[in-house]
């Protein structure tokens, strides 16, 4: 008997080959599942993006009901005033002596200061008054509204007159207090101001919060600027010190002091035309609030109805065409100590783009393609298993690969249709968040979906030019990781950071309308007509990094394929399969034992009939066998046919997947609106003749009897 091994060491060939086949089978399954998961991820991103785009198309805001508390809270804090109240409660004589000293010097304004805190956040609890200005001047121009000349001679007398106060600053009965720690002053905001007025005998402490906003007067069909102020009078005898340890300035913003006057009583006064003229302040009362939190008010003296609300943001054309803005009022807090500490705004963001229909159609089209391909793939997989007991793992990546370059171009066209508003709005929001400027309300999923389409188009182009098949999971993972870190990437390596920051600051400044007076300015929205390429390119730096990473991966993959693998594109191992493909793919190897040397190079009948040459298919798709060799004959594999965009219908027709949906639409609509064509299959060979399919030629049951099998 001869040696069973054939030669020394030959007995190990079969186990090694079996292990190789098993490893390749697991790798094939992993790649297929990764491709499916990535395409489903694309579907989710695009579907959510489509929903958000439709919301933007009709208009969306942050208010989910009529309650203003659903809005976003923002504002400015004053850190020294609560500690002054604590001193008044603990040592009133000391504070009164300091007030007398300021008034005796002929000054009407005391600038409240405290010693700086140390690194641990602790510091002296004692306050002091400066008589001329704060120790730190952030900006001479914006600090003008805190000058004594304006406060004592103009603004405070107007506020006192509007609140029907019998108090007069002329007789030194009270002193104006400016808290030098007020954040609005540090941020150079000249559209609002917070002041305190304390009487000389320390009986009461009034807090005024004034903001320039808009008044809509329905009876006159008019909208005009106004200065609206809320004020509260705190009886100083109501102050109570909390027992226990001394407050820590780093933690206890309210200085561990409270008041028994709860809730606080807020009163409003409004000056129509302020700050552009010195119209008197009139008492107003709030009757109700609107969906966005605006105050429905009336003037006490005349009964004039006004809707008071602030606006900030940008628009193009009109606020109902393309706009992104925030409306706001401020919180009338029931805690009088909180009123002293915080000037808090309730903001409701709104976004609208009536030109976003192009984005909605494109995103929806991609999601629809993924959904229909997934359904067809599941039907095919089921039918193959029923017929052959072979488990065919569907590759739904063709639904992304098919026409992805065209969809990328359409995305840019959609942005062009809306005047680049969508991408510019999104980029301004990203930049504003990065710089701590006006936070805009943007549904980011819309542009996230658009950028994903553009990135996949770029990845497909790279793969096609390098003649590669790249699993779609690779670009999807790269995109999601880079997108999640976009803020850090732009902050660290923005391509135009310095210039973009200047543009962002300039856009923020456009919300301020200068009054050309010594007093406050007006805060309101502004029209943005131009396209700011500097901000857009800078805020999309992360997208460029993602494309660079994709290119680097593709080049590395190409080098590995060329130098370290057998990179023949079609499998050449004989497969004894009657239909479908098994879950263990065979990669390029030796020639089939039963075929001639020319068999492997000759195009199949499927390829010559359809013009789809499987070996030349590149782009975003998982690797699969292009061909099967059965009894020495070359067949187009089921996976190769599917990836090319074709499917077998009713076991005798070869349809493009797009044409199936066209015929389905014709049947449902009962009219042959869309032209659809197919090939006839006879003896596993595809007829070269293309025939048109009418709705009367096939039923829905036949149309969705989908399968795949090797075709010669």
Automatic annotation (TrEMBL):
Residues annotated as transmembrane: 25-45, 355-380, 476-496, 540-556
Compositional bias segments (type: Low complexity): 576-589
Domain of life the protein comes from: Eukaryota
Annotated region (Disordered), positions in chain: 576-596
UniProt keyword Membrane, yes or no: yes
Keyword terms of this UniProt record: Membrane, Transmembrane, Transmembrane helix
Name of the protein: Transmembrane protein
Species whose genome carries this gene: Aphanomyces invadans
Organism classification: Eukaryota, Sar, Stramenopiles, Oomycota, Saprolegniomycetes
